[in-house]
UniProtKB/TrEMBL annotation:
Residues 35-218 form the Carbohydrate-binding domain. GO terms for biological process: carbohydrate catabolic process. Residues 359-658 form the Beta-lactamase-related domain. GO terms for molecular function: carbohydrate binding; hydrolase activity, hydrolyzing O-glycosyl compounds. Residues 1-20 form the signal peptide. Pfam families: Beta-lactamase (PF00144), CBM9_1 (PF06452). Transmembrane segments: none annotated. The keyword Signal applies. This is CubicO group peptidase, beta-lactamase class C family. Keywords: Signal.
């Protein structure tokens, strides 16, 4: 449960000049002894509250609260961070893992580019100091921050714990510069098995991208500040579409900028150094920044912004005239002709569609293939692998296939069933138990067929994602297996473990034997390895790159990597019923789980069902077999008609890829043509 501490802490903390905001001002200091005692910090230093609280509702700020201050030495290139914590039940070194003790994470982004970055974080507890970098070569500006660059001292005085950090920044300490910084204070109490968390800026996944960190402004000792207060006119937007932040960018110092929160009325304010600034948008779409849902009908935003404004010392400058409106979506229609557009649109028609929608949604990379008359008619890649590098992609660039992996795995399982290696109707616990659910007697009803048809009763991810079941506790099924629809990656991964157990082979080997070779799928992968890193397009949330850890679990629900050019061989094989028997293909076509109006992923007016690992739309021109994939910062889909011998494949590296794919499907296969 999240709550926000909005009340003053001066009665319980030693320091009293504490403010709540996501911009911190840091000034130079002459001398600080790194001993955990904060008494040598200047009395004039600004303290900032860690205001976002996740934990038990019955905890108050006297049980667990924190504040921090930042200072620096430019000549020595040292960054100092002081943290003061109040904790009524501190758990220090207990001889076990630091994850069972009170500890903290300190996130740092040295460059803190306004376009995003790749933060690192340090972990500190009683006896542990670690550094964690995101792997990869996309952004390495923080890789110099190794373990030996950081020192931390801690002192405990009753219920007060004080941390003092010193970090060697190697040329990144510059006056009139912005750094990225944030915290996660993690509290364990003897009376509860749950953690309580405190953050400065709201939101998790901070190491994925620096836009999730707070901003620290490095100011000179004589730098004066002023206040800016403004209004944004969002009359045209609904409450769910409103902008929640903007950037204020210095016109004199290019690396001095702050992200400023905008409230529900459109008001924003910030205390910033004097000088000339401009308002720079950072929210360009009506859908939320970290959304990855379906059917959002996202619109791009346009900003009518005044040119610049001047912040004066010790005064408040009022800013107005900022108007945000929705841009109309592209209207790229196929030429009028007889039949379905997919059967007659030209290559240039598709080029125009891709160019218009990729630009409108700011999707960095798109990989598209279109099949017509049982042949690949269109096969192209567009864009760059990330907004960091701007390097063009090619036909070997990899995208996360996300849940498309499920259809590939379903084919693998059907091939094993044909060989008599697995019985689709045999209870899986007779092959291999699932300890986390065996306390629920209904789990003994689970079979491969039930899982492939998404009727398992397991949630999509019970413990947070692939591989997390091993550290997860016991759960109860949501319903009796076989009685209802419930999409579940967790169930597919259980079936994956069963398959590995039965065959004595890992999924990577089975994929090569049962899918890649029979369907002639080249240079695609069922399991991530470091060797693939340089081939990957980086995922994005809106315009911000997401530098996340790749799945190193062979997850049959989500782990495949490929692109439209490489994956077309698999879809062509399905269209021509290769690699499986007629009976198995009938299992791909026939209804196993009929979908209600609310459960349908596509046009709700079109009858739809789940078969064995695929979603099927029933249309006047035959079946449309499909599966999509959404890992948040990647979105993709394939769809094909076995009767008409056509289909398309789209891979994107953006959370807005679903918007692109739905528009592309409407362009090639209009909803009006699919309704019975």
């Amino acid at each position: 449960m999240r709550k926000m501490f909005l009340f003053a802490l001066s009665a319980v903390f030693v320091t009293s000049n504490v403010v709540s905001q996501e911009v911190a001002l840091a000034y130079p200091v002459a001398s600080i002894d790194l001993d955990g005692n904060l008494k040598d910090w200047p009395e004039t230093v600004n303290w900032y509250r860690m205001q976002y609280f996740y934990g038990n509702d019955d905890e108050s700020n006297e049980d667990f609260s924190a504040q921090f201050a930042v200072a620096y030495k430019e000549k020595e290139q040292l960054l100092y961070v002081a943290i003061e914590v109040l904790d009524d039940d501190f758990i220090g070194d207990n001889g076990q893992s630091h994850t069972t003790q009170d500890h903290m994470l300190l996130y740092v982004d040295a460059l803190h580019n306004i376009q995003g970055g790749s933060p690192l974080f340090y972990v500190a507890s009683d006896r542990v100091l670690e550094v964690h970098h995101k792997p990869g070569t996309y952004r390495t500006e923080n890789h110099f921050l190794t373990l030996d660059k950081a020192k931390v001292a801690r002192k405990r005085m009753g219920n007060r714990i004080q941390y003092e950090w010193e970090i060697q920044m190697e040329g990144q300490i510059k006056v009139n510069n912005t750094l990225g910084l944030d915290f996660m204070m993690i509290d364990h109490d003897r009376s509860s098995s749950n953690e309580t968390l405190l953050l400065w800026k709201d939101g998790f996944g901070k190491s994925f991208g620096s836009q999730k960190l707070g901003d620290v402004l490095l100011l000179g000792s004589q730098t004066r500040t002023g206040k800016v207060s403004g209004m944004i006119d969002m009359t045209e937007l609904s409450p769910l579409e409103r902008v929640n932040s903007i950037d204020l960018v210095s016109q004199e110092y290019p690396n001095l900028w702050v992200k400023t929160m905008v409230d529900t009325t459109g008001h924003f304010q910030a205390i910033i150094p004097i000088g000339q600034y401009k308002v720079s948008p950072n929210g360009y779409f009506t859908s939320p920044m970290y959304s990855s849902g379906f059917n959002q009908n996202t619109h791009k935003l346009s900003y009518d912004v005044l040119q610049t404004f001047m912040v004066q010392p010790d005064t408040t400058i009022s800013v107005s005239g900022i108007i945000v409106a929705k841009q109309p979506q592209p209207q790229i229609n196929p030429p009028a002709a007889e039949g379905l557009p997919i059967s007659y649109v030209s290559e240039s028609d598709i080029d125009k569609f891709v160019a218009a929608w990729q630009s409108y949604l700011d999707i960095p990379a798109v990989s598209v293939a279109v099949i017509r008359n049982n042949k690949v008619f269109y096969d192209k890649e567009f864009g760059v692998n990330s907004n960091f590098t701007k390097e063009p992609i090619n036909d070997q660039t990899l995208f996360e296939a996300a849940s498309i992996t499920k259809s590939v795995f379903a084919v693998l399982v059907l091939r094993l069933a044909e060989k008599g290696i697995i019985d689709l109707d045999k209870p899986l616990h007779e092959y291999l138990t699932f300890p986390n659910i065996e306390n629920d007697e209904r789990s003994k009803l689970l079979t491969a067929r039930i899982i492939l048809g998404h009727r398992s009763g397991l949630p999509n991810w019970a413990w947070g994602g692939p591989g997390t079941w091993e550290s997860g506790g016991e759960i109860q099924l949501n319903f009796e297996p076989g009685t209802a629809f419930g999409y579940s990656g967790e169930a597919f991964n259980y079936l994956g473990r069963v398959v590995e157990h039965i065959t004595g082979k890992d999924l990577r080997t089975l994929y090569e034997q049962e899918v890649a070779r029979p369907f002639k799928v080249k240079d695609s992968h069922f399991f991530y390895t470091d060797e693939q890193e340089d081939r990957f397009a980086l995922g994005h949330m809106h315009q911000y790159p997401q530098v996340k850890e790749k799945e190193r679990v062979a997850s049959p629900a989500s782990a495949m990597s490929t692109n439209a050019h490489l994956f077309k061989s698999f879809v062509l094989g399905l269209i021509n019923e290769k690699g499986l028997s007629k009976n198995s293909y009938q299992l791909i076509y026939d209804p196993y789980t009929e979908l209600t109006q609310e459960q349908k992923l596509y046009d709700p007016e079109v009858p739809q069902h789940v078969s064995h690992g695929f979603f099927v739309q029933r249309t006047p021109f035959g079946k449309l077999i499909a599966h999509g994939g959404n890992n948040g910062d990647y979105d993709c889909k394939f769809i094909y008609s076995p009767e008409q011998k056509f289909g398309f494949i789209v891979f994107t590296n953006s959370n807005l890829g679903d918007e692109f794919t739905r528009a592309f499907e409407e362009f090639l296969l209009p909803s009006s043509s699919k309704r019975l």
